[in-house]
Amino acid sequence: PSIPRHTNRLINEKSPYLLQHAHNPVDWYPWGQEAFDKAKKENKLIFLSVGYSTCHWCHVMEQESFENKEIGEIMNKNFVCIKVDREERPDVDKVYMTFVQATSGGGGWPMSVWLTPDLKPFVGGTYFPPEDGVHRIGFRTVLLRIAEQWKENKDALLENSQKILEALLHRSEMHLQSQESPPPSKEVMATCFQQLSNSYDEDYGGFSESPKFPTPVNLNFLFTYWALHRTTPEGARALQMALHTLKMMAHGGIHDHIGQGFHRYSTDRHWHVPHFEKMLYDQGQLAATYSRAFQISGNEFFADVAQDILLYVSRDLSDQVGGFYSAEDADSYPTTTSGEKREGAFCVWAAEEIRALLPDPVEGATEGTTLGDVFMHHYGVKETGNVSPMKDPHQELKGKNVLIIRCSLELTAARFGLELGRLDALLREGRRRLSAARAQRPRPQLDTKMLAAWNGLMISGFAQAGVALAKQEYVSRAVQAAAFLRRHLFDATSGRLLRSCYRGKDNTVEQSAVPIQGFLEDYAFVIQALFDLYEASLEQGWLEWALQLQHMQDKLFWDPKGFAYFSSEAGDPSLLLRLKDDQDGAEPTANSVAVTNLLRAACYSGHTEWVEKAGQILAAFSERLQKIPIALPEMARANAVFHHTFKQVVICGDPQGEDTKEMLRCVHSVFSPNKVLMLADGDSAGFLYRQLPFLASLERKDGRATAYLCSNFACSLPVTSPQELRGMLCP
């Protein structure tokens, strides 16, 4: 490789996204004191650019503007330029995104914001083309105009930035009214169900026309709604909506039929043409959601999809030391000799490629049928490509096919006169050959940053799948990842989580010179993971760590005045606002997850003040939950669980005994949104017995493994048969 012409300070960073910009002619600084001091000393404006490694338009803006020498010179002369990876610093991203959304009515990445030397934003936007066009002002022009403004009207600009900041502070404080009590569960559930039902796509599933995101939070809400309304028509519809959506997604092009796992979102309502990046947080949540769908329906189809996701993550997103990487990019080189990357190049197929790979005649099928014919029919492959030009504005997918299952196995089998088992084997062979061919293509960039929050979501995915699918190897993988978190993303001396660590040379794990401290979402998702992992492994050490982290989360983030948790901790002078997220989107918001975490923590510890805190969060978001719960489906779900009270399912028995295992299998096979499982193994010196004295009074009946269902620490009569227990769990 040629020696780079330029190198800037980002060369010393660990984030793959920042390192991608280390050879731009722009004199980039990372977010930090060195850049702030320079801006103050030289009295220069700051240009802040925020993106992430799998962001398509971030790559475009880099190629067009940040790699342009002249534009680089304008930037270096007039501004102190700072680059931020939003996945490393969600706190910085949220502060300035709040500003961009408030002032321009839209937002997105790359985010481009200009700040005064004391970090106050005064103008911002997203992607800018390099030069002026008919409809859009070019980046070069914007840079020159802003530099001019700073020279001519500095005082007005500073005054304006102060007003903007005051307005933002006012907005962020007005947001939450601390009502006295949580909103009523019945109304919130009914409204959220109604809003989802109204936006549901009856044909293809999902909750919008396009683009369509997987949004597991919606599906988990519907599962809980069904569990609490099983016998009503609305309950049946909720379940049907969730299962149909999961089925259509798995058949669609958003699901990688050759390389497994799910892409980030679909550009059309059919789940067909995706944006091809794959994010760890989607894999973690979807593995859990598909496992739940199997638990509820008993349909092996859903179990297969969950296993497919976990195969992808184990193979492509796993670090040897046990952690999980963040993402795989959408863009890659079509061939080893290509000069430029294309979106989806790694995943799409020309019809003739498939014909060449699958030329074998199929015995027993209609005359002259090849394996290619069968495969192409089943996966919707067309000779001229199956991507509509409307969905391919840059003609990157012209003549290519994104595999999608348009008809059932039965229909394909009937069409070629094959029996189902035979067809299944033929399609499997086709996928195997395409997979081998694809392995020869240049791979998309892998973001090897490891984030505590997303690792938490993935641990939950492995733990819940391990339990629902009765696969011990998934539980073991979750244990390995939790041990990784404890070793590399936790500071035992301070008791605090760290946000990120990185793959170093020779498979070592590296940390930044100044480690980034964990944010609220890191605590919420890791605590949730540890509770899921305890229920799957029954190792009390995970429980003990979860409760310690919950105390730390309360200390660092709780807002005693307005209730609920702030997203970031106090005391960072470079952060202008402390915000609270109020949207469950591609990931649930941390306060939503915290409600359920607090209720589970109270069940395992007997600390009733945690139940009180959960109620205070729900009260703080009460108005939003009553008006537009569709914006907070995970919190609406938690609100229902809060009102229905958690059931402690206590199994008294020897962990190794067959009778105990049978009772546990029974608990694991039932979907019940408000159950908390604990094993009372008789060790009165153990962590659980010390936390919950009432366990000592529960005993094994006739020496056999015995189950008790307890609520608020009062317990049912003992049962010793899995059938009786199932009856109690599914009233």
CATH homologous superfamily classification of one domain: Glutaredoxin
Low-confidence segments, given as residue ranges, are: none
| Quaternary structure classification | single chain
Shape: globular
CATH architecture assignment name of one domain? 3-Layer(aba) Sandwich
Structural class assignment: alpha+beta
Q: Please give the CATH class of one domain.
A: Alpha Beta
Distance between the termini: 67 Å
Strand tally is: 21
β-strand amount: 5-15%
What is the mean predicted local confidence, pLDDT? 95
Alpha carbon gyration radius:
27 Å
How many separate helices? 27
Which percent range fits the helix content?
Answer: 40-55%
Largest β-sheet summary: 5 strands, mixed
CATH topology of one domain, by name, is Glutaredoxin
What order do the strands of the largest sheet run in, or round the barrel if closed? 1-3-2-4-5
Model description:
With 731 residues, the chain is α+β, with helices and mostly antiparallel strands. Among the domains are: 10-175, Glutaredoxin (3-Layer(aba) Sandwich), CATH 3.40.30; 347-440, no CATH class; 648-729. 48% of the residues lie in helices and 10% in strands. The strands form seven sheets. It has a five-stranded mixed beta sheet, sandwiched between helices. The chain has a four-stranded mixed beta sheet with strand order 19-18-20-21, with helices on both faces. The longest helix is centred in the first third of the chain and has 21 residues, at 154-174.
